[in-house]
Design brief:
Length: 202
Amino acid sequence: MHGNLHSRLVAWMKIILPLAALGMLSTLFLISETFDPSEPLPVVGIDLKQRAQDEGATNATFAGVTRSGHEIVVQTRKSQPSQTDPRIFFAADVSARFNLSSGTDIDITSDDAEVNQRLNSATLSGRVKLVTTTGYALETEELRTQFDTLYAETPGEVTGTAPAGDLVAGRMVLYVTEDSGKAHLLFTDGVKLVYEPQDPEE
């Protein structure tokens, strides 16, 4: 029985192997007909210089803790280093969250940002929004921040709502006292507050 199986296997191999070799040989001829070694090799259309300029990261997250124990988390949809200074990078769709040791949280979003890693600073631009857990929801066109001391200021007008009502100011400064860890908002240069009394039933 074993010898009969071996004989059948050898007989089938005598048929299969020549057919496989013939198939490989025909495939080789087909390939040789479509390729001319005298022609230059095709080059993929990639602009290496542009690719180097476009070097960056998508959906990047930067996190850290200040000397006073405040937590900072910054997320960007896209970030790209400067061509002149690698310590500076430009980011799009930025969101930052400051978790202060006092328990206050500050959320900041902006369309764009220029971050300077050497100075631990960033300039947020576009539609900048600042929301705090203490009841402030503000908007401005530019916000200059300092991460190591948790300091921020607007060179221009800021509008939004405060716990007491609607607010408009020519300039805003956000700073954190190191001993208590509390955040303070200072409004200057023509402050207008429309007071909205709270409903006593709420």
